[in-house]
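Sequence in, structure out. Go.
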Amino acid sequence: MRIAVDFDGTIVEHEYPKIGKEMLFAFETLKALQEQNHQLILWTYRTGKELDEAIEYCRSKGIDFYAINKNYPEEVIDESTSRKIDADIYIDDRNVGGFPGWSAVWQMINPEPSADPKAELKNLPKSGKRRPRLFGKK
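Output:
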């Protein structure tokens, strides 16, 4: 998937034009998404020196984005180019309801198999015997 990610208020706390404190699990989640071969696009209000600082900050944490404020690295931005990035998912603190946190983002993109009740039924033993309880006897 192509995932557009905001910087201020999403990767770091909102301290624009300074770089705020890193959001909990931000870089761990971004690295894991890249390991799953998702294309991450930095989609931020920042430009010029402030943008360069944000890019360098992310690089220092091990994240290089596929593209920055563009759909793809070679894109030429002019009056005919839409400012909206073509992405499958947008991760931004300005979403309706606000930013849910990186743990919630991860779970939305990678739902647990156990969240599917049908998957749980498939894991029951075929002999008809119940599995032993993990905590206490009953």
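Check: The chain is about 25% helix and 10% strand. Residues 58 and 64 are 7 Å apart (CA to CA).
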